[in-house]
Amino acid sequence: MNPTAHTNDVPPFARPAKRILICVTGLSPQIVTETLYALSVVQQPPWIPDEIRLITTQRGADNARLMLLSEKPGWFHRLCEDWSLPPISFDASHIAVLKDAQGQALDDIRDDQDNKRAADGIADLVRQLTEDPHSEIHASIAGGRKTMGFFMGYAMSLWGRPQDKLSHVLVSAPFESRPEFFYPTPASHVIPSRTPGEDPLDASAAKVWLGDIPFVRLRNLLPASIKRQNSGFAQAVSAANRALDQVELEIDIAQSCVRINQQSIDLPPMQIGLLALLAWRCQQQFPPLRAPLKEVDDPAWRAMARHELKQAVGEMNIPDNLDKRLGQSKPMGGTVSEQLSKMERTLRSSGALPLSSLIARTNIGTSVRQQGYSLNLRPQRVHIVKPGARIGKLAE
Known about the structure:
By secondary structure, the chain is an alpha/beta fold. The protein is 35% helix and 17% strand.
């Protein structure tokens, strides 16, 4: 074994179940071996994938099979042997070929339609591979046409999770311009000159390293329906843009649920009632709701809250446990604060509320420094659906 070789000797409890390297390539499959070398040999500690996935055109797939996976030259197998890497799953079945609108393999990306299909194919592969919460993805944007690298980077922004990485591999001159170069070899390996005046090179002298690319992770902004299906690149981008621009809140009293950007979240009845109270006040453009007193009974607050809840959802739709609590002559400031905090934790853990708090807490300037509660939403983005009522399509 080569003395500088590395193995996947990280204890199982210290690493994800599966590490996956994703590459986009065009006609030059070297990106795969160069990236694999940088991750498994140069990087410390090494990051050795359990599996490699490649997405490319038909011509790119043919080149990858011939140059990387064949018996000779078989550069992928040679790299693994030269640097004593552990088994890595990578064969022809791991190469995804981009398809056109008729389902035929794309030989190249030549027009807007090809670009759209490439975007959908790359985004869908990334979406599928990030569905497993115990996987860890390293994606490279270095190969293929520039648009393919862009789509890979954007797909990682849409679907990438905290454990996932994005990079571009870099190769020292003059090796980066030599198609015969695939990775730095542990021993001398001569790359012959191709043209008069061109010098031969020794592959062992090359330097390869990764440029880490930070990226914004938008996954939690996407509705659950888009996360679960092949919705297309453009639709996922549109959903992310809508979520970044606005949060749309719908409180469905009939179904006893809350929807944020059309994603349904179940909440306990008391929390739905309190949220409906704040939503109604938001619609009326009222000032923040004064928090009830915590140490003593606050009958004025209880009466006001019940009156406004009646306006918001109707007498018969006030949740029984909240209605009962509002009728009790004892402090309820602690109950309201606790229920609102629990509700926000539920919404945030659902992924529906990733960027900011739904509820604003402000000092309303009274002598006892009471907090005021209000929604961080514009009134036109708040909807309350009562039994028997329907609202139109949510605002775009």
